[in-house]
Amino acid sequence: MNRRDIIKGLSLLSLPISVKGETLFFESSPASPLSAKRDLFKELGVRTFINARGTITAMSGSLMHDYVVETIKDSSRDFCMLDELQDKVGEKIAALTHAESAMVTSGAFSALMLGMAGILTGMDPEKVKQIPQLAGTEIKSEVIIQKSHQIDYNHAFINCGVKLVYVETPDDVDKAVNEKTASMHFLGSGSLSGKIKEEEWVALANKHRLPASIDMAANVPPVSNIWKFNDIGFSYVALSGGKAIRGPQSAGILMGKKEIVAAARLNASPHSGTIGRGMKVNKEEILAMYVALEHFINFDQDKLWKEWQAGIDRVGEAAKKINGVRAETFVPPIADHVPTLKISWDTDKIKISGEQMLDALRKGEPSIEAYGGGRDFMTLTTWMMRPDQINITARRIKEELAKAAV
Ligand SMILES: *Cc1c(COP(=O)(O)O)cnc(C)c1O
């Protein structure tokens, strides 16, 4: 063992070791164990809860699988060049997603923004410096979006300095296109509400020789959506890492045409004079995102679906034990496309509103966050629960309904 090996071993094990009679403790080693296990949520007085709601950013998204957390832990012990890692991981993700190229971003929002920036700048370093100050430059400055696809996340484009131009019909698109048009954007979860569907949107973009982008952040499951929009021919696709895929909530994927991803990377961290510098992802998120995606694609999707269904069935059966309670399953058609439970009740027999139920569950022990509280119903999912939390949720809901029964 040479000295380097000893030190490497030290940082991994954080054991005291004797070198030439002197005992060394690497107290400051990033790998030294915490002296006692801390429960920081408790220490800080931060409420934790059972998530019966789904993958909501403000509720901290999803729980990472153990292999994702392991990846973060293991990769935290070594240095690497971020660009090299993005190159290698990007190739792997691109292969998994049928894209020409890909990169890990700090989320779907960041993917939307960096893809847009890449379209505006290409590989021109002067343009990269310029964004978002487009006035007086030759940089294009408009994005066409369907009216029904207005959503706060489109602020990602405004951040780049571009103007959002809203349309409804193919005819509107033809009229809206002009020399300032940079791209045409589609909201995946707006597919049912818009007059123009994905394939036609891409065809229109092709007709006008414009890139087409899509925000399909929350459109998984089904797993096939991970590659579907690359197959359809979108120029770039934005996907969340911290929703169904259960990677880090601070990660996402930008995938699409080689030249767009390459230009997006010029506009991103680790490059400093860029619009994307504040959306940093480090090696841990890059690798964890890759591993999470790879595992998710390899899951037995039927089994996963059956687990989710069994989870809400268990809660529904418990609730139905109370006289006057109904429980039915529905599946939102796009986005959060998972078995979802609607529990409703006869308000003559059960004197509580949906809102009051949600409040009672939130204030109960343990706290539970469900949603959709109407006059006589509430809604929940179990797909973001740890297995042991499903029975607890079933019991708590039954308890609260029983309490309100007259
Ligand atoms: C969640 C979501 C986003 C943002 O995704 P992040 O990964 O949190 O950045 C963007 N668009 C839609 C439609 C979403 O549902």
Which strand-content bin applies to the residues? Answer: 15-25%
Shape: globular
What is the CATH domain class of the largest domain?
A: Alpha Beta
| Low-pLDDT regions | 6-14
Biggest beta-sheet profile: 7 strands, mixed
Number of beta-strand segments: 14
Q: Roughly what percent helix?
A: 40-55%
Order of neighbouring strands in the sheet with most strands: 4-10-9-8-7-5-6
Rg measurement, Å: 25 Å
Instruction: Give the N-to-C terminal Cα separation.
Output: 76 Å
Structural class: alpha/beta
- Give the tally of structural domains: 3
Write structural notes for this entry.
Residues 6-14 have low confidence and may be disordered. Helix 3 (66-75) packs antiparallel against helix 12 (283-298) and helix 13 (301-320) runs parallel beside helix 15. The N and C termini lie far apart (76 Å). 42% of the residues are buried. The longest helix is centred in the last third of the chain and has 20 residues, at 301-320. The chain has helices at residues 3-13, 40-44, 66-75, 82-97, 108-121, 125-130, 155-158, 170-176, 198-207, 225-232, 258-266, 283-298, 301-320, 354-363, 387-404, and strands spanning 17-19, 22-24, 50-51, 101-105, 142-146, 163-167, 181-187, 212-215, 236-240, 252-256, 325-330, 340-345, 368-369, 377-380. The strands form four sheets. A seven-stranded mixed beta sheet has the order 4-10-9-8-7-5-6, sandwiched between helices. Helix 9 (198-207) links the parallel strand 7 (181-187) and strand 8. It is of the alpha/beta class. The chain folds into three domains: 3-35, no CATH class; 79-298, 3-Layer(aba) Sandwich (Aspartate Aminotransferase, domain 2); 301-404, Alpha-Beta Complex (Aspartate Aminotransferase, domain 1), CATH 3.90.1150.180. Bound molecules: pyridoxal-5'-phosphate. Pyridoxal-5'-phosphate is lined by residues 57, 107-109, 153, 189, 215, 217-218, 240, 242, 252.
